[in-house]
Amino acid sequence: MSPRPxxxxxxxxxxxxxxxxxxxEGPAGHFTxxxxxxxxxxxxxxxxxxxxxxxxxRVVDLACGRGELLTHLHDHRPDLELLGVDIVERPHDLPxxxxxxxxxxxxxxxxELRGLDALVLAHEWLDVVPCTIAEVDDDGVLxxxxxxxxxTESLGGEPSEADRAWADAWWPTTQTGERVEIGLSRDLAxxxxxxxxRTGLTIxxxxxxxxxxxxxxxxxxxxxxxxxTDAVPDGQRDLTAHVxxxxxxxxxxxxxxxxxHRLGLTAxxxxxxxxxxDPLGYVQAxxxxxxxxxxADPHGLGGFHWAxxxxxxxxx
Length: 316
Known about the structure:
Layout: E1 4-5, H1 6-15, H2 37-54, E2 58-62, H3 68-76, E3 81-86, E4 99-102, E5 116-123, E6 132-136, E7 142-147, E8 153-155, H4 161-170, E9 179-182, H5 184-195, E10 197-206, E11 208-209, E12 221-224, E13 227-229, E14 238-240, E15 243-244, E16 252-255, H6 256-262, H7 274-277, H8 279-296, E17 305-311
Parallel strand pairs: 2-3, 2-5, 3-4, 5-10, 11-15
Antiparallel strand pairs: 1-7, 6-7, 6-9, 7-8, 10-17, 12-13, 12-14, 16-17
């Protein structure tokens, strides 16, 4: 296959028939996120608390994998209405109380996803919405990066006028060899998602950066079977790039650590005296403290960005 823009090869590699996110093992077969295992159980508490604060009793989990977080939410708060959205058919082991919608993938959302009164969570969604990759050539001109099926890159023409305008505003660069991951497609995807709600809270949780901390060489990378690997659009690996969180236009952007601390979740070690009076409770409390510490680690998961927009019904 001849070289083509990264955004097109990226989309096919993840979402086309045979793409990475359609594989039987699902994303959890290749990497762990905050939605899995003990981490997911605590994250479910966080999401449920935020839904309560937003005054809604429904949670929509967009790009939810195989429903891992939804299962934790159902266990923690069976009173909540839960809806999962992903490109695969409903997982067979998902609790029957959880609703499901199939999505086209990437930035495209199901038409039925409208008029929501809900907390809508997009956890590690925007980083896999394909975007234009561009690089400054030897003459100082920003040009699109093309890629073939083996992962070999070359430079194409200049970006579209809209992409160029985004780069000028949010990621200006003129140095030869510097790369830009043009976030316009992510901004538009976020605006579309936000527009689907009437009341509640829309949240995007992701790897990210803001103006002044943009990585000079970009962040496009890949994961396969738990290992960081070369970015090749072959459908055998996840392809991801960090999100320019400040260009989204959210009401606020904070770190995951900040969110946990706002809710009073800190990694306080339980009183050691409890080990003799309530050994099982002590072990459980110790495990919970360890889990919260991992979720709040500023150099790890705690450094994730949470972009949040609140919705209140207007009274005309």
